[in-house]
TrEMBL record, chain A:
It comes from the Eukaryota. Residues 345-388, 424-437 have a biased composition (Polar residues). Residues 1-26, 342-459 are annotated as: Disordered. PANTHER family: RAN BINDING PROTEIN 9-RELATED. This is RAN binding protein 10. Residues 281-338 form the CTLH domain. Belongs to the RANBP9/10 family.
TrEMBL record, chain B:
ARM repeats lie at residues 19-55. GO terms for biological process: proteasome-mediated ubiquitin-dependent protein catabolic process. Residues 648-673 are annotated as: Disordered. The lineage of its organism: Eukaryota, Metazoa, Chordata, Craniata, Vertebrata. GO terms for cellular component: cytoplasm; GID complex; nucleus. Residues 656-673 have a biased composition (Basic and acidic residues). This is Armadillo repeat-containing protein 8.
Length: 608, 673
């Protein structure tokens, strides 16, 4: 590897792409092609060591291509394709090839080809193959005879190839200058391809490893502007203000859904629309939501039972989810059941901002939410999905957490860290061992969890997420003020006992549900994650500590809100979010069927 | 009134006929009327100005401009804005003379001061400036009033209209103005230099108008030398942007402007020409410029036909201009241009178009392409380009004549097949008349073309030239104040005085005057090249059989030759050497030059040999025989000369002479670049 570094200006290029270069590449690819879901359709990052003719040699992390055949005539031509085809969601795709050496005759071809096209040829000679050749500057469009296209190219030149997946054309660049359209009506799923034909020919590819010579981002900007102006100018048949009325309804229902009571009333007044739900009902929901978001889940459950009798009884899954959350909040020391033990005034921590400052966030900061949420088409149509993917990936797997809890000595750790007495210690120990047994029990039952948490992802995209900076800050500051070191259940002995007590009840509830409704892997996972918190000396900085993050209250809150609305025969998702979800899903569908314009019409672009 | 006239040209005309304007102006000027009333008056007047050109004329007749300018002194911003809006509308009308803005010096400074008042004043004032800035005088006035500093910060205004008008202002201020351009490079706004701001405005998602205008600014700055031609902002931004402006997707107006600006940008830089020629198939793209009005538009849509017709001339001339710039220096590009579909036919047609602009551009394009030896021999001959060209030369305005006669120069080069027919069609007379022109460029071209014509010409042509020109005119030209004219006239003389019979013939008829002129020039204050050329003429004369006597009997001239042999400049020394060599050389072994002369020459040559570091080694061996020495020196000198000349011109291959004496007698024709 080291000897090959001569041709490249940066020393780092010679080495196999280590983490920094790889990171740089990933960063640049993400910036260039933000709409591409790289898990579904990976981007080309190097030449394929498998998809090439024998006369091709690869080096330098499969980026450098050299010819190693006889090069007697055109029968000795050899090509190599990139590892992956160009995803349509790129919208506009670009790669560059630097001619390191033109070799004997400089018969180099740069272009595109579909999978399965003969590799014993230069790109452009066969069907579904396209190329620009260095010796004569001709373009070859699936044909053995070329058309005059551009200048010739040779050693030292950088040739770029840009595929426009919106109008299915391709143009080349030479040393940063666009040479004009070379091909039209390109098929989809083409691979970047280079072909060489005489000894000594060497070329280096740049799939984004380094900055491009041609300003491709400027070209992308032009197309983004074009597509966005198409959208802007798209005609809507507006009969007698229907359009406006619809928009107003969407906004209004959204406000109501999230319980922005006074804003909704003001909006209704100004736009002269009516609100379906009663004021008091909105306020009730608002109160309950506030409680959940403040971490006072116990109170929230009480309030719900009081205001909407029968609701939780009919929704055992929701109840279980709430209770799990309550347990987590107890660990956190925020739930009122443990807070009342605290020496401090419980109100001092009740600093969760009121509804006016709660504002949903749909930002790119949570882009994974969009992707997970809309992954399952059903959710965008307003149906709760029970099989949304991923979302548990950020948690450590079951086996690892249970093994860590069994390998360490949880009791001693807890003992030393908490200011509890002997009795607590034993209690805790027993509870932990209890948990251990239940863990192992679950471990035996647990296979894999292909399906993640039930409503977590789907509801979150539907209902939006909440601005948590303030909450976090107030929470943290209050904690820092009062207890410099965050402690289990606020460091209170009685509270810890109550928590353990509650954990037992929760375990019983789980078993009861299991009996009544059959096994529910989701519940098991939730319970396990919650209990795992106790296995660590510092739950806030442990592999499952993320649960303690106030942001995790949001899905629970949204689920509860949706359930209440559903019980009132109101839509459990606001139409605005539904439309948003639908738009996102539409774009994903476009990407899948090869419509490149999806990359420049992203929902995110319109949300800020 | 306001509501009645808005959008209704008829009503506007009616009101004007009824005499509303003087009344409105009266109310506007009354200090005592309320500002609301005065503002409304300005608004109505502005509305009237929005109408036809006749409306504007009527307003101008009522001296509306001074009244409105007076209004700008008011403290009320609304009123000022209304006045400015009306002024803007009047000044952007083609019937308004721009000079009206500059009659009072305080107006400009007041406008500059108003620039800080509001986005509206900024927009209107910039618009007024950009429409009223015509030519270097206006540019200087505005520049001296601090236009650059006052307007620069508007480029980052939040209002698009203000940004755009400020940008337009800069594009007219900087156009062909090195002073403004050099200043702009170093101005920065919010820590960003203007070129960077312009480059940002070139981004492809910006409105086309903005991209085009900022490309014009950068082009002006580049041509003024403020930005290097190899700067990335020119090579990778401005040039590609202008090429994009030429594409089919753009409006016809944008395509015209894009092509003209690009032509200007690359006019003198071969690297930019090469880059433009490969960018986005520009050469092929330009061929579309000739397809208006298209046959489709004629059938489908009368409006479109009208639109196309209006722009057809502009498009054609823009394309010709750009082709001319593209092909100015690079032979491969010229070839590509000529290979474009029907290119030569289009040029030939363009030469006989009614529009002067198109004709001029077509001639320019032809001139650019005529620099190619290959094309002169092939496509130029195939399409008999000389015919329409000769026609253009008859009674054309000077600007066309200049370019056309330059082209003719190239078509008259000895290897051009067009030379013969051009001669037959009476070119000598035409060219001789050009040499009498008041216009310097025409005089140069006329005499240049004659010089090319005389190169290796037959006796008859030479006498025709001499007769057509007349000796008086010849001497007139020799005393021309312009060095170029003088040089070409000397060149013509040198070409006329070649081959022994011709020399003797011409010297027998014009000997006296020529010797006189030569003496005069050698005595006069001229640069080295002129003296060298004159000495070469002497050398040619010395080559004659009878003509030689004119020198041998002229002691004055002999002394001068001797003087130049020991001149400090090597070129003059060499030229004097030619004279001596030719004087001494005598095939007939007849009369020998005087012995005294001989001796002096020997000493000089010895000196020369000792000083010369090129040929001393070779020459020492043959020093014994005087003649041989001279021959040797001359031979070497000849070789040196030839090398020099080959390097000077692309014509080296056409002159493979083995006889070094011949070499001395000629002055070859040169390409007109």
């Amino acid at each position: 590897m080291a000897e090959a570094g001569a041709g490249s200006p940066h020393g780092g290029d010679a080495a196999p792409p280590g983490p920094p270069e790889e990171q740089e590449l990933s960063r640049r690819l993400r910036r260039l092609y933000p709409a591409v879901n790289q898990d579904e359709t990976p981007l080309p990052r190097s030449w394929s060591p498998k998809d090439k003719y024998n006369y091709i040699g690869l080096s330098q992390g499969n980026l450098r291509v050299h010819y190693k055949g006889h090069g007697k005539n055109h029968k000795d031509a050899a090509s190599v394709r990139a590892t992956h085809p160009i995803p349509a969601a790129c919208g506009i795709y670009y790669f560059e090839v630097k001619i390191v050496s033109k070799g004997r005759d400089g018969y180099m071809g740069i272009g595109l080809s579909a999978q399965g096209v003969n590799m014993n040829r230069l790109p452009g000679w066969d069907k579904h193959s396209y190329g620009y050749h260095g010796d004569d500057g001709h373009s070859f469009c699936s044909s053995g005879t070329g058309q005059p296209y551009g200048p010739t190219f040779t050693t030292g030149d950088v040739i770029g190839c840009c595929v426009n997946l919106i109008n299915n054309t391709c143009f080349y660049t030479k040393n940063g200058h666009s040479l004009g359209i070379a091909f039209t009506d390109l098929p989809s799923n083409l691979y970047p391809t280079v072909g060489l034909q005489t000894p000594g020919e060497i070329v280096d590819a740049n799939f984004g490893q380094q900055p491009f010579v041609f300003d491709i981002e400027d070209y992308m900007r032009e197309w983004r502007a074009k597509i966005q102006s198409t959208i802007k100018r798209f005609p809507i048949g507006d009969r007698l203000g229907e359009w406006q009325a619809m928009l107003q309804n969407m906004v209004s229902s959204y406000l109501v859904h999230h319980g922005y009571c006074s804003t909704a009333t003001a909006f209704a007044r100004v736009t002269d629309t009516t609100i379906q739900e009663e004021q008091t009902s909105i306020k009730n929901r608002q109160r309950i939501q506030k409680l959940v978001l403040a971490g006072r889940v116990g109170e929230a459950i009480e309030a719900t039972q009081q205001l909407y009798p029968g609701l939780l009884e009919h929704n055992p899954n929701l109840l279980f989810m709430l209770k799990c959350r309550q347990f987590v909040e107890m660990v956190n020391g925020t739930d009122s059941e443990v807070r009342c033990f605290s020496a401090r005034s419980p109100r001092s921590q009740d600093s969760y901002p009121g509804s006016p400052s709660l504002s949903p966030r749909h930002g790119s900061a949570n882009s994974h939410l969009h992707s997970t949420g809309a992954d399952s088409p059903t959710c965008s149509n307003g149906v709760m999905s029970t099989k949304s993917k991923q979302s548990h990936s950020k948690y450590p797997t079951l086996s690892s957490s249970s093994s860590s809890s069994s390998s360490s000595s949880p009791s001693s750790v807890n003992y030393s860290e908490s200011n509890s007495t002997d009795s607590t210690k034993s209690q805790q120990h027993s509870s932990t061992s209890n948990q251990e047994t239940s863990d192992s029990e679950m471990e035996m039952e647990a296979e894999h969890y292909p399906n993640g948490v039930l409503e977590n992802s789907s509801t979150r995209i539907m209902n939006g997420t909440y601005k948590h900076e303030e909450i976090l800050q107030t929470d943290e500051s209050s904690m820092e003020d009062s207890c410099p070191q965050r402690q289990l259940c606020g460091g209170n002995h009685a509270a810890t006992e109550r928590m353990i007590q509650f954990g037992r009840e929760l375990q019983i509830l789980s078993e009861q549900l299991c009996r009544e409704y059959g096994k529910n892997t989701m519940h098991k996972k939730m319970l396990q994650d919650a209990f795992s918190l106790l296995a660590y000396s510092d739950p806030w900085n442990c592999p499952v500590g993320q649960q303690l993050d106030p942001i995790q209250r949001e899905p629970v809150c949204a689920a509860l809100n949706s359930a209440i609305l559903e019980s009132q025969n109101l839509p459990k998702q606001p139409p605005l979010m539904l439309a948003l979800g639908q738009a996102s899903e539409c774009l994903r569908l476009m990407a899948r069927v090869g419509l490149g314009s999806c990359s420049f019409a992203r929902v995110d672009d319109y949300l800020h | 009134m306001k509501n009645a006239v808005i959008g209704n040209n008829k009503q506007k005309a009616n009101l004007i006929v009824l005499g509303a304007v003087p009344r409105l102006l009266y109310l506007l000027q009354q200090e005592t009327s309320s500002t609301e009333l005065r503002t409304e008056c300005a608004v109505v007047l502005g509305s009237l100005a929005m109408g036809t050109e006749n409306n504007v004329k009527s307003l101008l007749d009522c001296h509306i401009i001074p009244a409105l300018l007076q209004g700008l002194l008011s403290p009320d911003l609304k009123f000022i804005e209304a006045c400015l809006r009306c002024l803007r509308t009047i000044f952007i009308s083609p019937v308004t003379p721009e000079d009206l803005l500059y009659t009072d010096g305080t107006v400009i400074s007041h406008l500059m001061a108003l620039l800080s008042r509001s986005p509206y004043t900024q927009e209107y004032i910039c618009q007024i400036f950009s429409h009223c800035c015509k030519g270097p005088d206006h540019q200087t006035i505005l520049f001296n009033h601090g236009a650059v500093q006052n307007i620069a910060h508007l480029l980052v205004s939040t209002s698009y209209k203000v940004r755009m008008q400020a940008l337009k202002c800069f594009s007219v201020l900087a156009f062909e103005n090195p002073q403004v351009s050099m200043t702009l490079v170093n101005v920065s706004v919010d820590g960003e230099l203007l070129p960077q701001i312009f480059v940002k405005m070139l981004q492809r998602d910006k409105p086309i108008e903005m991209q085009l205008t900022s490309a014009k600014c950068l082009t002006s700055m580049c041509r003024a030398g403020a930005i290097r031609t190899d700067d990335p902002c020119i090579v990778l931004k401005t040039l590609p942007c202008l090429v994009r402006m030429c594409s089919k997707d753009r409006l016809l107006e944008e395509r015209v402007e894009g092509a003209e600006t690009l032509a200007y940008l690359i006019e003198t830089d071969v690297e930019l020409q090469r880059m433009a020629s490969i960018t986005d198939h520009l050469i092929v793209m330009l061929a579309d410029y000739f397809k208006y009005p298209s046959s489709v538009s004629a059938i489908t849509d009368i409006k479109r036909l009208d639109h196309d017709l209006k722009h057809a001339h502009e498009l054609r001339q823009a394309a010709f201009k750009l082709y001319a710039s593209l092909g100015a220096n690079d032979e491969d590009i010229r070839k590509k241009i000529i290979e474009t579909e029907n290119m030569m036919d289009r040029i030939v047609n363009g030469l006989s178009e009614s529009s002067i602009k198109v004709r001029l551009a077509a001639v320019r394009c032809l001139h650019s392409l005529s620099r190619s030896v290959q094309q002169l021999r092939t496509s130029f001959q195939d399409h008999a380009v000389w015919k329409p060209l000769m026609k253009v030369l008859q009674n054309a305005p000077n600007e066309i004549l200049v370019v056309a006669s330059s082209t003719l120069c190239n078509l008259l080069l000895e290897f051009s097949p067009s030379k013969e027919p051009i001669l037959e069609s009476g070119a000598i007379e035409l060219l001789c008349s050009l040499t009498q022109s008041e216009n310097l460029a025409l005089r140069v071209n006329g005499i240049w073309a004659l010089m090319n014509m005389a190169f290796q010409a037959e006796q008859k042509i030479k006498s025709d030239i001499l007769r057509g020109l007349s000796t008086e005119q010849l001497f007139q030209l020799l005393s021309d104040s312009d060095v170029n004219v003088l040089m070409k006239t000397l060149g013509l003389l040198r070409n006329l005085l070649s081959t022994r019979p011709h020399i003797d013939h011409i010297m027998s008829t014009h000997g006296k005057q020529i010797m006189q002129a030569v003496t005069l020039i050698l005595e006069g204050e001229h640069n080295i090249e002129v003296k060298e050329q004159t000495l070469c003429i002497l050398a040619n004369i010395a080559d004659g059989t009878t003509a030689k006597e004119l020198i041998m009997t002229n002691d004055d001239i002999l002394q001068k030759i001797k003087y130049y042999m020991s001149h400090s400049n090597a070129k003059l020394q060499l030229a004097a050497m030619f004279c001596i060599s030719n004087l001494i050389w005598n095939e007939e072994e007849g009369k020998k030059p005087s012995l005294l002369m001989h001796r002096q020459v020997t000493i000089l040559i010895k000196k020369l040999l000792l000083n010369s570091n090129i040929c001393s080694a070779q020459c020492i061996g043959i020093q014994s025989v005087m003649g041989n020495i001279i021959l040797g020196v001359v031979w070497i000198v000849g070789v040196v000369r030839r090398h020099e000349e080959d390097a000077e011109s692309s014509l080296g291959e056409t002159q493979g002479h083995s006889d070094n004496k011949q070499e001395l007698e000629r002055h070859r024709g040169g390409f007109h670049l």
